[in-house]
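Changelog-adjacent note: as of this version, every example in the card shows the full chain rather than a window. The one below runs 592 residues end to end.
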Amino acid sequence: SAAVRHGDTAQGVRRRMILDRPDVLLTTPESLESMLVSATIDPRALLCDVRAVVVDEVHAFAGDDRGWHLLAVLERLTRLTGRPLQRVGLSATVGNADELLGWLQGSNRGRRPGRVLAPAASGGGVPEIALDYVGSVPNAATVIARLHPGEKRLVFADSRRTVEQLGVRLGELGVETYVSHSSLSVAERRRSEAAFAQGRDCVIVATSTLELGIDVGDLDRVLQVGAPTTVASLLQRLGRTGRRPGTSRNLTVLAAEDDALLRAAGLLLLWSEGYVEPISPPPHPAHIAAQQVLALALQEHQIGRATWTDWLGGLALVPPAEADAVVDGLLGKGVLDQDSGLLFIGPEAERRYGRRHFMELMSVFTSDPQVTVLHGRTEVGTVDPMVLVAKVTGPRRLALAGRTWTVTHIDWTRRRAYVEPAEGTGMARWVGTAVPLGGRLVDAIRRVLLGELPAGVILSGRASERLDVLRAERADQVDADRTVVLHADGETCWWTWAGGRANAVLHAALTGVDPQLDHPSRTYTNEHVALRAGATASEVGAALTKAMARYGEDLAGAEPEITRRAVQDLKFGDLLPDGLAERTLAERLGGC
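Full-length structure tokens:
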């Protein structure tokens, strides 16, 4: 028998699961955590017979804090069952499988054998990949409407706003269109995905919610508006097609902006060379250690100060010397209390996390406060509050679920907005976080600007022409043999093409040894380091020599500056002792 449990599983289904335990349980790290700490069920009775854990799309966990959370929960489950658990990770897009195997083994590493099974890729032939430049999102919708009529098309976009813009515009063009992203209600997403799965001549526009294998039936075409940030993500999207016998994988990339065109060309260049990014778990998850102490205190009601790390089976979330500091920080903030060496939940934890049975403590990612959008009693999705306070002329309209709505009433106390269907165009807005691009990708963009092109990719005439324009405009920023220092617009730019993390370290190192190099308002981008106006190449070179002497040849000792917003966005970072959250983020930002 099999069952599913996640945050939206009904209470009745959960109760039946306890009475009739399934042989196979499909769940998430967050739901497994909630079972371990539950006050209404006995996790030992429910989970005592677990023998194996299968982690699908393991690369999606390993690259962020959900991976550390997953490993910690698995170690606690191992201790609870009293036996080593077989761990199986599945991935089609990982560049360092052996390292990922060691990471997934956790406490089994060195105790139980592990191996990588990598069967040869099955058929599929040469994929059909095309790159086009369309110049705007409305133009992208027009191209999608005209391409491949009568076929089933999955369109990826890299923001919820773009998904909604495409959904509304495609509907206006008469295309049967569905949308899917994380701000839609579960019911709305399921409705869209089920309708698309049953359809034939239709389009579904989605963010990465449909990247990892959710079943929407047989697909004929995959299109990408904009560009993802990794080759692995590109491969996931390409892999949604070519699954039926006699069909081949295909992907059409529609770049709506210059940056997206260059990023797409860079990704495709790396793909054509067989490159896939290695997965690197983020270093120093001290905030996850803080979360785990609290979770263990909930699970066991009280936990030994000297023994809580035993539950993690040797998983070193923090160095041993920092474990006491993490606990001291929790005690100092009142989220933990102690008596005779035993730790238990403190009053501040009840105040911060006690609502809905400590559900906010179960996940390690931060969600911005949202307003729920309702049509009658039906939840459509959520929107950023800013879209409801922005100045407008006439009725306030939203774009959500691929449709346009008029806001009829806002209940700020309950964070609800009531809407009715409308004609025309609505606003779509959510808060996003900029992602630093990897050094290999940024260098590939440099190579594209120098004239290289990806093999095996069809470039449209528009894409070729636009690339020629960009090469001419940015010719002074690139060189085949060296980096470039340029003076323009009141600043000096060192065009390193090294990626966001490397440039963060470079900026910190250079300004650390020579503060006069610091620009008053700018720091770095993925492509360059910004320095004060008039700084010469010789000054930059001298500062780099000093920096390597102070921080090491690889500048590992230089810590990038961390913004207050970054600390606020690190969930549970506010539970750490002073300075530890900043050190965690600096170490992560500095990981080139």
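Structural remarks: The two ends are 46 Å apart (CA to CA).
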